[in-house]
Specification:
By secondary structure, the protein is mainly beta. It folds into 2 domains: 89 residues; 228 residues, Neuraminidase (6 Propeller), CATH 2.120.10. The strands form 7 sheets. The chain has a 5-stranded antiparallel beta sheet with strand order 1-2-3-4-8, with no helix packed on it. Strands 5-6-7-9 form a 4-stranded antiparallel beta sheet, with no helix packed on it. A hairpin with a 5-residue loop joins strand 18 and strand 19.
Length: 318
């Protein structure tokens, strides 16, 4: 069996990570589980398991109130937030551990073909305002009472939602695999123009909301590409000789996973700052960033904490 850490997040009480377990060569059927470690931990700390499932968990998000949310490729969403959901009678198993209390529900089937939505992104402004995006470009919203499909994608891989993030309930962005740049104003999603000619293999895949109210979007292709703007429109900030496969903001730093390391935005330039390990994704914690390492022999991730002065880098594995 193969195992890997797929996503890392942080609350005020813990660092939380999702693992995938799968037969070698069959990651499409990988089963997800959730663990936590103390925020101030050392290399000897072993993780505590919070959730064991037989479900294909793929995405995880922590709400501003510190509740955990996960969603699966088979159209289920689970959370530690109070929701009143009745668990679906479909054979899915969510075994809660370490005192965590989870609720699970099945999303409405896709309007177009009636299949369970394959969730690929999740974000919200609060526990009663949560968005999920799917393969094919569909978008759903939880308003604290019910889940509703609020956008119909075209069903193709070209519109698959790669990331969702926003400044609040009425200023949310979603990006997709090819020229899919969307904005939610609190009522409906609308398409925004993607500036500049696309790179070969261009894919929008990361969103960072800045303190000044503007938004950065990163893209991969035969060059990395960075867009900057707001719901009023975006412009191209630059193109770079490194891949921009993920983006995160930590205090005043804008950081990127580049596939072959870590880069930082300096002015309009993207500069490599670490090239000693591979990176397939990045998430922002509380004053630090967590980088996922692909294809490593053990469960591990790399942390960058600028507060640690001369020793900001740290690898956790077990």
């Amino acid at each position: 069996m193969q195992q890997e850490i797929h996503q890392v997040a942080e609350t005020s009480q813990a660092i939380v990570f999702m693992t995938l377990v799968y037969e070698e060569g069959d990651i499409g059927s990988a089963i997800g589980n959730v663990y936590q470690i103390p925020p101030d931990r050392d290399s000897e700390d072993m993780p505590t398991q919070l959730l064991a499932t037989n479900d294909t968990l793929r995405v995880m998000w922590t709400s501003p109130s510190g509740h955990l949310w996960v969603a699966s490729a088979d159209g289920r969403v689970a959370t530690t937030a109070p929701t009143g959901w009745q668990a679906p009678a479909d054979g899915s198993q969510y075994n809660t551990l370490a005192g965590a209390t989870w609720s699970v529900t099945a999303l409405p089937r896709e309007r177009g073909d009636g299949t369970p939505p394959n969730v690929t992104a999740i974000w919200g402004s609060a526990d009663d305002d949560v968005h999920v995006g799917t393969f094919g470009g569909h978008l759903y919203r939880w308003d604290g009472r019910s889940w509703t499909q609020v956008r119909d994608g075209d069903g193709s891989s070209y519109q698959t939602i790669r990331a969702i993030s926003g400044h609040g309930r009425d200023d949310v962005f979603a990006v997709g695999a090819r020229d899919t740049l969307l904005h939610f104003d609190g009522s409906a999603w609308t398409s925004l123009a993607v500036p500049g000619a696309p790179n070969a293999g261009d894919a929008l895949n990361g969103i960072a909301c800045l303190a000044d109210g503007s938004t950065l979007i990163c893209a991969t292709g035969d060059q990395g590409r960075l867009l900057h703007g707001s719901s009023a429109g975006f412009s191209e900030l630059g193109r770079y000789p490194v891949q921009l496969v993920g983006i995160a903001v930590v205090d005043d730093k804008v950081l990127f996973a580049t596939g072959n390391g870590v880069a930082e935005l300096v002015g309009r330039d993207v500069r490599m700052i670490k090239e000693t390990f591979q990176t397939s994704g990045v998430t922002a914690g509380l004053g630090r960033a967590f980088f996922i390492e692909p294809a490593v022999p053990e469960l591990q991730f790399v942390e960058l904490d600028p507060r640690n002065g001369d020793a900001p880098w740290w690898r956790y594995g077990f």
